[in-house]
Write a structure and sequence with these properties.
Layout (H helix, E strand, L loop, with lengths): L1 H24 L9 H7 L5 H10 L4 H12 L19 H10 L13 H18 L4 H10 L1 H13 L12 H26 L3
Helix pairs in contact: 3-6, 4-9, 6-7, 7-8, 7-9
Length: about 200
């Protein structure tokens, strides 16, 4: 009897793991993520700041959450080897320019440690690259990672070939993976936290 119970428990664990593996390997298609897995693997914090800054900049809050996830995994103290800081991994010089453009008070690099400031400036920059590329989400996400200059060249080559920028047109493997990660994470944040992200602040 004990052996049968143990065998049943092992089967249940294997089945559960198989479900998770199947969901992960399928990306965001067909199979739906178990909510406990999605909430563990894709956390959400600072949703009030995300909603406020997304609304102010006309952005999809699930996209903002996905960019934060890809950039810092919601670690407000994150630092990159290139000097990018905080939740949305902004360079201090980029943030200083944003502060000037938005009429902010004198900017100090330490301001980027404040999640609300970091998200506000990150959303402004995301809106800027979206506008630069005519609302093309793939190009804008790529620009957030690789810079607008490089993406402008890729997008121009794609247009010359008769189509918008696609993942296959991005020559940097890191940027392709980044764009794919953000797009998949956006779907998960929308599916898992849609109500919290749309709630009035």
């Amino acid at each position: 009897m004990r052996r049968l119970l143990l065998f049943g428990l092992v089967l249940a664990v294997v089945a559960g793991l198989a479900g998770v593996v199947l969901w992960v390997s399928s990306g965001s298609g067909g199979v739906q993520a178990p909510s406990w897995y999605a909430r563990t693997a894709y956390p959400l914090e600072y949703e009030s700041a995300i909603r406020t800054s997304a609304r102010r900049n006309g952005l999809d809050p699930a996209l903002v959450a996905a960019v934060i996830y890809a950039e810092s995994r919601f670690d407000a103290q994150a630092r990159s080897s290139h000097g990018a800081v905080g939740l949305m991994q902004l360079l201090p010089e980029t943030a200083a320019q944003i502060a000037l453009e938005t009429g902010g008070v004198a900017f100090m690099p330490a301001d980027l440690d404040d999640p609300r400031v970091n998200i506000r400036y990150g959303c402004y920059y995301l809106r800027t690259v979206l506008d630069t590329f005519g609302g093309d989400r793939v190009a804008a996400i790529a620009a957030y990672n690789a810079g607008a200059g490089a993406v402008g060249e890729w997008a121009a080559a794609a247009r010359a070939a008769g189509h918008p920028l696609r993942l296959a047109d991005i020559p940097y493997a890191e940027t392709r993976a980044y764009v794919r990660s953000v797009l998949e994470a956006r779907k998960i944040y929308l599916q898992t936290y849609g109500d919290r992200l749309r709630r009035a602040s």
